[in-house]
Amino acid sequence: MKIESKDTDIESLLDGSYFHIPRFQRPYSWDDENINDFWNDLIANKGDDYFIGSMVVYKRSKQSFGVVDGQQRLTTTTILLCVLRDAFHDLGYVDSAEGLHQLIERKDRDNRSEFVLKTETSFPYFQEHIQKFGEPEIHEKLLAEEVNLRRAHLLFKKLVSDSISAVDKDATILEEFKIREKFEKLTGIRDTILNLNLIFVVLDNEDDAYLIFETLNTRGKDLSVSDLVKNHFAKNLKAKSTVDTAKIKWSSIMETIHNSAADLSTDMFIYHYWASRYEAVPLKKLFPVIKKKVTKEVSREYLDSLVSDAKIYRSIHEPSYEWTKNEIDASRSLGGLQLFKVSQPTPAVLSLTRAYKDSKIKYGKYRDALSAIEKFHFVFTAITSSRSSGGISAMYSAFARKLFESETSQEAADEISEFIDKLRAKRPSIDEFVVAFREISYTNANSKQKNLVRYILRAISEFYSYKYPCDMDELTIEHLHPQSMVGGGWDEWNVGQIGNLIFLDQKFNEKLKTNKIEDKLSKLSANGYVIPTELIGLVTWTPEQALARTDLLAKAAYEKVWRF
């Protein structure tokens, strides 16, 4: 590997070369804090030779380089130079504006205009709206990276504007000298930027760049797993024509994950993808394992599987994504798992959904397996808050891989049956469940578990086929003993417990102007509600009765409703 390095400054760098941000680079990601820090460093060191670190590139041609490290700083510097160029022009100093533009866009040896810094990922926004000297002609919906570029551009415009506007507020400067003073302020900022010092490191070829890109992960802010995996695919699947299929497919993965209504992480997707197919590896150790297994010969196959799994991964976290009305039971089980906020079953759920989508298993088998996972975690996680020493996660990952490796529908069915048996064996006892079920509570003052309470009441209502005059989603939670009547043995806890709660139509609930249990139940019955068996004939309603109903519902939940 041939490496050359030299000390240089920004002006010399931009004056004699063209820079290309290659496809394996991460998108522009500087936020307001990064921009303000950069600006404050410039102002604090105005007039001095300020060192901004190193920049690593590889040769593309005699005058053209691909950027390996330093992309964020180079892009940020270019944005600020564009803002200064426009400020010179608006102030009437056209020569200074055009002179600065030569470091942003200039003629090449064939007399064609070329931007000094070129990027693929933010095309055409960066070129049209920031680098271009004049009004943009293309207006398109902004992507995530372009939003960051626009924010940086607008923030620099404000900082530069505030800097020169300060001249107007300075009473010590005569009016006829203010334009010139503004020009000198802009010139000072410009010169400070152009005098920024850096170490320019040049690699001989692109292959060396991919290697350096990985090793740079050991210093500064760590590259994400997705950054490294993207780089690995770019290295193994170089474009053979103007159509860069690897880039297109990777962009498809990013779009699927980032556009989800769920809060999904690309790193966690890759982690769960690998655990569902091959082996469970800690996230920090995952990339070396992927790099070793995903050789150049099989890279296309692995990238294709990531594309297809990204859609499945999104669908299992976003129950409204790519599910039909005929698959509502599966979608609702996935929604239950989201409610419980569990990640342990993700490899198994991903593997199950993949098997279903690939027609390895039928919908009934898939639905039953998801239901078993949902019911297990209702008992294990949502109610008893049980903790696993790691055995649960290992069980899920092992099942996911066995299901992925199964070659026939019968093998897959057998794996699912064995897996469900293992889940049953790990259920907490009914005594643990009943005690924990008593702690589930909802009042207006304590609404943290409201969604869980709705989930419980809905499942019980559906199991016992309770009829309501409206859709389940329109029902409200009613307290049999009113929340406003705490005292006389009733406290916040037993008013909010499940035994004191029922579902009511909101309109009817507003008309139910009685606190007596027998009057409430009578009006419910008269309006077509099915009165739960344990409430029929009640004329009194005490905290002890509410607790007894809580325990009754707990036993029914454990033995019937959430049994699998």
Strand content: 5-15%
How many beta-strand elements? 10
How much is the radius of gyration in Å? Answer: 32 Å
Largest sheet: 6 strands, mixed
Query: What gap, in angstroms, lies between the N and C termini?
Result: 61 Å
Mean pLDDT: 89
Overall outline: globular
| Helical content band | 55-70%
pLDDT < 50 runs, ≥5 residues: none
Number of H/I helices: 24
Question: What would you call the structural class?
Answer: alpha/beta
Strand order of the largest sheet: 1-8-3-4-2-7
How would you describe this protein?
The protein has 564 residues and is an alpha/beta fold. It has 4 domains: 3-209, no CATH class; 224-322, no CATH class; 329-428; 441-561, no CATH class. 56% of the residues lie in helices and 9% in strands. The chain contains 24 helices and 10 strands. It has helices spanning 10-16, 32-44, 71-91, 94-101, 125-131, 144-169, 178-194, 206-215, 225-236, 245-258, 266-277, 286-293, 299-317, 328-340, 346-357, 363-383, 391-405, 409-425, 430-437, 450-463, 492-496, 506-511, 517-526, 543-561; strands spanning 3-9, 18-21, 51-59, 64-69, 105-107, 113-115, 117-119, 197-203, 475-479, 501-505. It has a 6-stranded mixed beta sheet with strand order 1-8-3-4-2-7, sandwiched between helices. It has a two-stranded antiparallel ribbon with strand order 5-6. A two-stranded antiparallel ribbon has the order 9-10. A hairpin with a 4-residue loop joins strand 3 and strand 4 (64-69). Helix 9 runs parallel beside helix 12 (286-293) and helix 14 (328-340) runs parallel beside helix 16 (363-383). It is globular and about 95 Å long. The chain starts with a strand and ends with a helix.
